[in-house]
């Protein structure tokens, strides 16, 4: 190729590639088909539900209130090491897609969405959901640390790969955890205590620190990416 034709092409290629990386915000990725995060600067905490959306209500507990308290405790634990961003800090409703949009303003970050579960009364214990390959290690560490401090672990699903709004749509590594079952009376009694909520927050914090220090090391084979469209409100319930 004559040099006079080569230079405009080179310029165009540079322009296109820089444009592409601007759209993806450097550390962001649509499918999460890459290694897990390490040495990240920011942790985004999403307290599930809020306002008119109470989440699960059982045994005298409201999910929206329990998650708000755990998120505040977790923020206090993490903020000496990370910039901590809260999706909501008061009792108001935030749409799921707005939570994703807010998280997507950050690049060098992970997103943890915190919930508590409801189901048959005998079921107890934590569950952790992820979708992207780059979120597997973080989810596995969170599930492991939560399980280690949870006395009741009856019939729960454990670590689950599922395409949800908060596990598929953010452009950063993201995990949704269910810290236990409000519908299990023994677990609910524990969750009423300040001390147990602090224990859960500490366990989640430990997992986040471990992920930042070690990345995917020691977490075994990372699951292959699955290329599926973003999750939508109209998706059939229970669809993968
Ligand atoms: Zn929930």
Automatic annotation (TrEMBL):
A molecular function (GO) term: N-acetylmuramoyl-L-alanine amidase activity
SUPFAM superfamilies linked: Zn-dependent exopeptidases
Enzyme class: hydrolase
Protein origin, superkingdom: Bacteria
Catalytic activity: Hydrolyzes the link between N-acetylmuramoyl residues and L-amino acid residues in certain cell-wall glycopeptides
Stretches the record annotates as Disordered: 214-240
PANTHER family reported for this sequence: N-ACETYLMURAMOYL-L-ALANINE AMIDASE (PTHR30404), N-ACETYLMURAMOYL-L-ALANINE AMIDASE AMIC (PTHR30404:SF0)
The protein, known as: N-acetylmuramoyl-L-alanine amidase
Key words, A-Z: Hydrolase, Signal
Alphabetized InterPro entries for the sequence: MurNAc-LAA_cat, N-acetylmuramoyl_amidase_3
E.C. no: 3.5.1.28
GO cellular component assignments: outer membrane-bounded periplasmic space
Gene Ontology biological-process entries: peptidoglycan catabolic process
Domain MurNAc-LAA: 100-209
Signal sequence range: 1-23
């Amino acid at each position: 190729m004559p040099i006079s034709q080569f230079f405009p092409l080179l310029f165009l290629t540079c322009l296109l590639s820089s444009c592409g990386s601007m759209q993806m915000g450097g550390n962001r990725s649509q499918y999460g088909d890459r290694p897990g995060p390490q040495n990240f600067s920011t942790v985004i905490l999403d307290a599930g539900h809020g306002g008119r959306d109470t989440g699960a209500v059982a045994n005298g507990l409201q999910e929206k209130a329990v998650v708000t308290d755990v998120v505040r405790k977790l923020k206090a634990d993490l903020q000496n090491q990370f910039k901590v961003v809260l999706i909501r800090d008061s009792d108001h409703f935030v749409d799921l897609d707005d939570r994703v949009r807010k998280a997507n303003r950050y690049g060098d970050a992970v997103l943890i969405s915190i919930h508590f579960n409801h189901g048959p009364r005998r079921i107890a214990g934590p569950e952790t959901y992820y979708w992207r390959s780059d979120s597997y290690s973080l989810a596995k560490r969170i599930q492991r640390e939560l399980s280690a401090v949870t006395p009741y672990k009856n019939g729960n699903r454990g670590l689950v790969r599922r395409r949800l709004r908060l596990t598929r749509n953010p452009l950063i590594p993201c995990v949704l955890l269910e810290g236990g079952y409000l519908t299990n009376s023994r677990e609910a009694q524990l969750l009423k205590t300040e001390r147990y909520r602090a224990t859960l927050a500490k366990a989640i914090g430990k997992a986040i620190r471990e992920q930042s220090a070690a990345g995917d090391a020691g977490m075994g084979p990372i699951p292959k990416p699955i290329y599926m469209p973003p999750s939508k409100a109209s998706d059939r319930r229970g669809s993968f």
